[in-house]
Amino acid sequence: MDSIYKKLKNNNNYNCYSGKEEVEYIFGDNKLSVNEQIDLCDYLLDKVINMQNKNEICPDFTLKENLLISYKDVFLRKIKIILDEDLLNRQWLKTFTEYLIFKSFKTWMVKLGLILLEFYENGSEIEKIIDVFSKEGEYIFYLDRTIKKMKVYEDFLFTLSKNTKGVIKLFALTNITYDNDEILKYFIEKAYKDDVYQDVYIDFIMNRIDLIRYLKDDMDEKKLDNLSFILSTYLKENNITSSNYNYDFVREYFKIVKSRGNTLYSLYAIYLLRDGVIDNNKERIKYEVDKLLKNKNMTYIFQDSVEKAKGDCEAIIDLADYYGAQLSFEDFLPYLEKNKREISVYFYIVQDGSKKDKMQMIKYFYNNFKVKDYIGNPKDIGGRENTLEDLIFALVISSSKTMPEEGKTISMLGLFGNKNEVRREAIRILRRYRDDIDEKEWEIIKDCYNREPNEKLKILLEKLIFSDENNKKEFVEVKDKIEEEHVEDVYLVTTKVAGTSYRHRRFLEEALETSVRFYLVRDTENEYNSISIKIVSEEGYVIGFVPKQYCCILNNMIIGNKYLYAKIEDFELDKDYIKVNIYESYEGVVEAINNTLQMITAEQNGSYIN
Predict the structure, then answer these.
(1) What is the largest CA-CA distance in the chain?
(2) pLDDT of 252-279, one tens digit each?
């Protein structure tokens, strides 16, 4: 059986996609703590020293190989210390390293050997080792220090980046110093474009590359568009102040866009920079950006991009919000032709689309997605295991809440959804259209209840079947509506609304969606609680009651002609939870003052009757 070294030596091809565990650790956020690294390092050092003391070179222990990268640097520092203190014999370490690299059959042993190359002094052998193991993504990150000792390591990495993809290309591009202008331009203009690691490259460019130096080069429209794409992609997830750049970069970039920016990405990058500068220059930047964004050229770029489906949906949606433009589902069709799973489109239509848009989206879903692939096998699966298709299905169901016929039809399908999110949304919509469900459909729903694998969804189905049967559709007249809120309105208390589980679901949802304010009205006909207070929507629908502990004080305030209203802070109807903030309106104070003044005036005129 050949050793790993011999197998790779006889292979002339690059394995660019092994080593994903190393990539996830190096470029991810899930790092081991210092103490954890030290513990792992001490364990390994003890094993190595024991082997030396027994004059053995074949390890009689094992390691979790994917963790070696996580404490490599700590291990190297400690090895250097014990070598300087002569606690480790250099000749033995050389022999041990050679065994691990050339003769071992286990990957963790090879990785340990490559780490120890830091102390290996045979130059001709090192070049052969680099040549062999740089073909394999799984091993190349353990060679970083050794490669950087090469006299022409920048040229080596540059060539490697051009000839490889995936993990090996990522290693090469993130270990170059970019002092060379040719390499700098190659990375920014071409090399970062990658199906797998593009976001990593863009983050690296924004934090490690001298872009101000690049801006001062000959910046034509093509280069500007490319840089704007990099910048806008980064700024969608990050603030400019979290990068390596400051006001000087923003000012220089802004000047270039102002003079020759003619693409959607330039427009979008400037828009994202608008609120991104958090220092003394913030207001100045915001003013200059608004001025630029609203000039004829920039507004034309936006309109032209919508008409011709340029750029990406997220940019179009953000800019539409800035310009106050209403996008229709038809505007998005060219984008969906490129990628029907563009989820930002579905989110936008659910939140901001008209009834016509939502109807078109439902039809589009039926015509372009195989619904049968997402139903028929309900499992207790959610969270990260949702596919884009499952999330889109759930969003399409959600969009049907103002369309009884379509909403009921697609929600009945959604009850059989493979993923929890789809079934949850279907149940929510069906509770809204409970009055429209026929006997046959009730039998289907009850069968779904018996089969439901998720306990929380089973409870929601139980509420759908039983809890809404006698729920109230109660309306009352609101006599004193508040025309507008005032800065002098007085906040009184935050509380949960009582009795929401006994309210009719459809009317409750409509009230929460349409009412800006809710009014506090005394329940004078309540035989059991004379100080009961109803919370009523602007259309007069009762969504619930003020909890008993606040009724006495608030009831007295209403009797004393105080105007009280509530605003929704949070709600989750599946849990029968609505939280409101209650205020005293300043209008009541003004009216009381006016009444007092009128009485004083009347008394002074002799017309006030006691």
Answers:
(1) 118
(2) 898 999 998 999 999 999 999 887 665 6
